Amino acid sequence: MGARQITLNQRLVKVVPVIVLTNLVLLSGLVFLTSQNNSNFLPQAGDLIPYAIAFGKFSSYLLGLIALGLILKNGLLEGFEPKDSKYLPSLSAAWSFSAFVTSFFLIANALSTEFSQAANLQILITYGWDIATSRAYLFMSLLALLISAFSVSPKRSTPLATSFFSLVALTLPASLSHAGGVASHQWAVLSGSIHGFSVSLWLASLIALALSVNKLLAYQNFQKIVNFAFWALLFSGVISSSIRLNSFTELLTTLYGQLLALKLALFLLALYLTKFARKNLTNSSYYLWIEIALLSFIFSIASVLSSTAYPKVSPPAFSLIESVTGYPEPPEYELIFALTNFAFEPTILLAGIFAIALYLKGVQTLNSRGDKWPINRTILWITGIVIAVYVTNSYLGRYALVLFSVHMVVHMVLAMTVPILLPLAAPITLALRALPATSKKTLTMREGIQLFLASRFSRIITHPIVAFLLFATSTWMLYFSPLLTTLMGSHLGHLFMDLHFILVGYVFFWTIIGKDPNHYKVSDPIRLGLVFLAAVFHGFFGFIVSSAQNPLGGGWFFQVAPSWLSNPVVDQQLGGSIAWGFGELPTVTVLIILLYQWAKRDEKIARKFTQADTDAYNEYLAGLNKKG
Q1: Domain limits of the chain?
Q2: Which is nearest to 285 in space by CA: 28, 14, 595?
Q3: What is the per-residue pLDDT for 180?
Q4: Side-chain half-sphere exposure of 428, counting CA atoms within 13 A
Q5: SS3 content of the chain, % helix, strand, coil (to 5)
C-alpha cells in the first residue's frame, strides 16, 4: 500500500504541473485570439486585463475543483478519514483568495479603468454587487472561506456541507451568464447552472477517483456521477447553443462557434476515454489523468468563451421595463388572460418536474417490495408542486414582476398555500424508506438525509420559535428594506426569493401539521397559538401595506410600473389588502387540519385503554373508597 501511495504522489508531482502549464499556454493563445475584436474587453482597462481575467478564472476553478475532488474522495467515493482533509483548509483559503482577486480584475474591466485604481475596498463596496460577474466571484470567495473553516475539524457530516458549498461556488459564474437577448436570459441562467454544476461534478469526481486507493469501491459512485453529468451536459449544451447561435453552421463560420466545437470535441474524447478506464480499473490512472487534462482544457476554453461575444445579437430593449426586468412590457392586466396564458420559467418548471418524478419513484420503490404508501400523500405532493409551477409559469408570474398586487398573490400562494400541502405528503419519510440502506464505508444519500436531520443547523431552524420567526418576520424584512429591489433586479435573486417563500413556509407548517418526524414534540395548544400568532403578524403586515403612501422595498414596483398602470400607489395598497385577506383561508385550513390531528391523537391515546383497564381502574377507586 505504501509503495502504491508513493508512486501516486510521484505521479501527481509530474502530471499536475504539466496539465497546469499546458492550460496556461492554451489560455494565452485563446485570449490573444479572442481579445482582438472582442467588445467585452475594454481597452481603457489595459492590455493585460483579458489575460488576468482568464488566468484568474482558471486558477479559481482549478483550486476549487481540486478542493471538491478531495471532498468527494474523503467520504463520498471512499471511506471518511479526518486526516485526509488536512490539506483542505489551506487549499480552500487559496481558492478564496484567487476568486477575490479575480473579482477586482472583472471590476476593472467593467469600469474600464486600470487595475491599480479598481483594487480598493471603496470600489468593491460600491460596484462589486452591481457587476454580475464580480458578484459571482465574490460569492465564490466567501463560500471557499466557509469550506476552509468547516474543514479545520472535519466530521463525518462535513463532506455533505463542503461539497454543497463547493458545487454552488463553482456553478455561480455560469449561472450569471446571460445570452440570446431579453427573451431567453432565463434559459441562459438554467443552461449555465446545469452546465457549471455537472461539468464541475464530473471533473472533481475524476480527480477524486484518480487520487483514490480503492478504485473498485470509488468507481461504483463515480459511474453514477458520470452518467448524470453526461445527460445534464447534453441537455444544457443544446439549450446553450440554441440561444447563442443563429444557426448550427456558425459552429464552423464564427470564432465563438469554432471554440464551442473544439470544446464539444474534447468533451466527446473525454467521454470515450472513460470507457477504457471502465474496462481496466487496475491500470486506469493514465486514462483518468488524460481525461482530467482534457476536461481542464474544456474549462480553459469555457473561461474564454464566457468573455467572448457570441454570434446571436441581443435585440435592444425598447422600454425601461424591458431593460430592467429582461422582459417586454406585458399587455394590460386581465385576470382571465393571466390565468390562461403562459410565460414559462424553465428553472422552476424543471425543478417541479424533477420533484414529482423523484416522489413517484420513491412510491414505486415501496410498491415494488410490497410496502404501501397512502395515495392521499401522493396527491398532496403533486398538487402542491403543480400549484407552485402554475403560479410562476402562467402570466401571473410575468405580471408579478411589474405589479405589486399580483406579486403579492404569487407570494401568498408560494408561502401560505404550497407549504401547507407539501409537509402533509411526508417526503422525508418517503425518502428514508425508499433509499437503500446506509453504508459503513461511504456516505449514501440516505445517511446524508439522516445526518442533515440530526445536525445542529436542522435542530435550530426546526425549533418552533425559530420556524415561526423565520415565517413571520422575513416578509417584513423583505418588503420594508431595499432587499426586495435587490432580489427582483436579477433573475437568480428572483428565483431565490421564490424558493425562500416556499422553504420558510414549509419549515413552519412542518412543525405545526407535518407528517415527518420532528426534533421537538410541541403540544397542540402551542401549535394552535403559533398559527394564530402568525395570522396576526401577516394581517398586521397587510394592514400597514394597504395604507402605505410611499414606495416599499426600495421602490422596485414604482421603477418598473407599466405604462397602462395609472397609479402604482393604489396597486401597492391593493397588494396589502390581498395580503391582509388572503391569509384567512390558509389559516382556517391549517386550524381545521390541526384540530383533526389533535382529535386523532386523543383517539389513539384513548384506544390504549381497554375495558379491562377501565374495570381495573374502577376497582382501584372502589378499594380506595372502602379504605376511606
Answers
A1: 20-305, 323-611
A2: 14
A3: 46
A4: 17
A5: 75, 0, 25
- Residue count (the chain): 628
Residue 408's pLDDT is: 94
The answer to whether the CB of 388 falls within 8 A of the CB of 502 is yes
The rounded Cα 193 to chain-centroid distance in angstroms is: 9
For residue range 602-621, what is the model confidence (pLDDT) as tens digits?
676 666 655 566 666 566 66
Cell numbers placing 170: 463553482
DSSP string, 108-128: HHHHT--HHHH-SHHHHHHHT
3-class state of residue 394 by DSSP: strand
Give which of 386, 458, 407, 405 is closest to 428, Cα–Cα: 458
Give the separation between CA 11 and CA 486, rounded to whole angstroms. Answer: 48
| Residues 221-256 pLDDT 10s | 777 787 888 888 888 878 877 777 777 788 788 877
CATH 1.10.10 matches 20-305 = no
Q: How far apart are the C-alpha atoms of 55 and 48, rounded to whole Å?
A: 11
> How many other CB atoms are found less than 10 A from the CB of residue 337?
14
Report d(CA 393, CA 498) in Å as an integer. Answer: 12
Find the helix or strand (DSSP H, E) in which 472 lies.
helix 464-479
Give residue 120's region: left, alpha or beta (phi > 0; psi -120 to 50): beta
- Give CA separation, 182 vs 231, 327, 488, in Å: 27, 6, 15
Q: Helix, strand, or coil here: 74?
A: strand
Instruction: Name the CA dihedral angle for 68, 244, 190, 341, rounded to a multiple of 10 degrees.
Output: 180
104: left (phi over 0), alpha (psi -120 to 50) or beta: alpha
Set of cell numbers at residue 122: 471603496
Count the Cβ atoms, other than its own, within 10 Å of residue 87: 12
pTM for the full predicted model = 0.84
What single letter denotes the amino acid at residue 537? Answer: F
CA dist list (Å): 25 to 46, 174, 258, 293, 585? 20, 23, 18, 13, 64
Q: Please state, in angstroms and rounded to a whole number, the distance separating the CA atoms of residues 245 and 191.
A: 14
* Biggest alpha carbon–alpha carbon distance for the chain: 107
- 65 vs 94: CA distance, rounded Å: 12
Alpha carbons 349 and 357: distance in angstroms, whole number: 12
Higher pLDDT: 568 or 82? It is 568
Instruction: Report the C-alpha gap between 392 and 342 in whole angstroms.
Output: 9
Instruction: List Cβ neighbours of 197 (8 Å cut-off, separation of 6 or more).
Output: 167, 170, 171, 232
- Cell readout for 611 is 375495558
Hunting for cell 390558509 — which residue is that?
586
pLDDT tens across 547-603, in order? 988 999 888 999 889 989 999 999 999 999 999 888 778 888 888 888 888 887 767
pLDDT score of 8: 44
Closest-CA residue to 392 (of 349, 426, 360) = 349
What would the DSSP string read from start to end of 442-453? Answer: S--HHHHHHHHH
User: Which H helix or E strand runs over 178?
Assistant: none
CA distance 588 to 535: 10
The Cβ-side half-sphere exposure at 552, using a 13 Å CA radius, reads: 27
d(CA 156, CA 455): 11
Q: What is the pLDDT of residue 124?
A: 77
